[in-house]
Amino acid sequence: MNNPVNFYLITDTHFIPNRLCEDCEDYREYMKYEQMTLAENEAILKALFEKIAGDKETDIVIIPGDLSKNGEKESHLEFIKYLDKLRDSGKKIFVITARHDFNENASAFINGARNPVEGTKKEELAELYKDYGYSAALSRHPGSMSYVAQIAPGYRMLALDSDGETDLSQGGDKGYINSDILAWAKEQIEDAKACGDEMFAICHYPVIPSSPFFEIVKDARLENREEVINLLADSGVNLILTGHMHIQSINVVTTEKGNKFWDVCTSSIVGSPGRYRKIAFDGATARIESFEIPDFEWDLEGLTKEEYLDRQFSRRITNRINRALENPKGAQKLYMPLAKKVVNSLTLGGVARLACVRIDKSLKKKKFLDFANEIGINLFKGDEPYVEGTKEYEAVSKVVNRANFIIKKVEPKLSKNKPLDLKRMIFDSIGSTKPFSDNNATIQLK
Predict the structure, then answer these.
(1) Nearest to 38 by CA among 14, 12, 71, 63
(2) Whole-prediction pTM
(3) pLDDT-derived band of residue 173, with 50, 70 and 90 as boundaries?
(4) 371 partner at 20 to 30 Å CA-CA among 82, 168, 255, 302?
(5) Is residue 271 classed exposed, middle or buried when 0-12, 13-18 and 19+ CB atoms within 10 A define those classes?
(6) Whether 47 contacts 293, CB under 8 Å
(7) Coil, strand or helix: which one is 94?
(8) Is the pLDDT of residue 168 over 60?
(9) Any idea which architecture 5-298 has in CATH?
(10) Alpha-helical regions (H) of 89-129
(11) What is the pLDDT of residue 221?
């Protein structure tokens, strides 16, 4: 067996230059509903790349998609300058593009408003990123951005394009790897075996849903995941590195033939929780470490990095809930204003009284929206803490059990082909019961 190959994993950079994020009314309105930071992006990327450049022992960096904010040509050109500088420090960098990287109708916050800017066609991306995986590829799939790279002696990376072949604004597919790409991938896996090389894969979309709740969210996971899992795992590729959901998660399934398949999904660097990973891979195991983004030059308004990113995430959740309550239709106009007032003032003690249950005294004064934000942020950080035995779990359990009759009515409407256990989804989303961490783990691949 070869010595392990070590590399950094960064996902969802969503890079946009600071000059395209002018502080204006349109920008402030947009940021009410955005999970990520925008104006801070350039400062975060600069600090992170400087940190990685200083590590002289690990010379590989992998970035699986959503390189730009939304396909702005200027974002790509500026981002490539940062890649060039990182490469010049001695790093080998491999990227794959994703759905936020091509957009012919791009816009940015310039000249006092949100205005059109030059966009990027999907067919331009391979040339733009030719120095970062595409020109040195051992093989490229002719109809997509998929390719295979020799990242180190004895190791290959299979990069799978999951975003279709046309501009999404024109109806292109997303979250799907077509049969032609999979047939090509099968050939590449067999070729790696013949050469004695170990192989792992990268793909922008999670293949295994990052959380049980995302099983029912169409854009949260690969549409034809079972087909992809069976082909890769049963052919000997047992690890895939993904992004898209901006979440820290590690998940595993076993195929009918008894082969394990691991999906390591990593958060965006420019939004809560703002983490990246370092991985050591030898074919049989993968040692995974997670790190917070380094300090970056920005006025954090007296907050820590974590608090600053979490605040943006919380604003998004709260503002989206309020926006839904502010736009009632028909008869809803009579009670939605009251519903908004109740939701924003409701405490966990109030929820408990409505459900006729008792909860821990220390939770009673906590605002319902604050608790909802807390659960959402914890979910995206991974290793969710509210497991059985905690006061938060017990409170949620009592309310959920009281609402069981409602849940049973909702489940058939949410489920499609498979039975849905909504209660289990709720409990798994507030408290992780996995035998391994979502952030730091050594996983057995075979």
Answers:
(1) 14
(2) 0.94
(3) low
(4) 302
(5) buried
(6) yes
(7) strand
(8) no
(9) 4-Layer Sandwich (3.60)
(10) 125-128
(11) 85
Nearest in space to 213 (alpha carbons), one of 388, 378, 5, 405:
378
- Tracing tokens 């256990």 back to the chain, one arrives at 421
Write out the two tokens for 345.
């003032």
The answer on pLDDT for 170 being more than 60 is no
Cα distance between residue 200 and residue 277, in whole Å: 16
pLDDT tens, position by position, 391-410: 999 999 999 999 988 888 88
Taking a C-beta distance cutoff of 8 angstroms, is the pair 125, 98 a contact? no
pLDDT (mean) for 160-184:
74
**One-letter amino acid of 445:** L
- Going by C-beta distance under 8 Å and a sequence separation of 6 or more, which residues neighbour residue 159? 64, 94, 96, 133, 145, 146, 147, 148, 149, 201, 202, 203
Each residue of 200-212: b (16+ CB within 10 Å) or e? bbbbbbbbbbbbb
* Helix locations, 6-89, DSSP H: 25-31, 41-53, 73-88
Over the chain, what is the mean pLDDT? 93
Q: Please give the average per-residue pLDDT across 6-28, as a whole number.
A: 98
Domain ranges of the chain: 5-298, 305-430
Name which of 267, 139, 146 is nearest 206 in CA terms.
Answer: 267
Q: Which two tokens stand for residue 180?
A: 């032609």
8 A C-beta contact, residue 8 and residue 278? yes
Among candidates 64, 72, 60, 61, which has minimal Cα distance to 15? 72
pLDDT, tens digit (0-9, with 9 covering 90-100), for 191-214: 999 999 999 999 999 999 999 888
Quote the distance between the C-alpha of residue 334 and its chain's center. Answer: 38
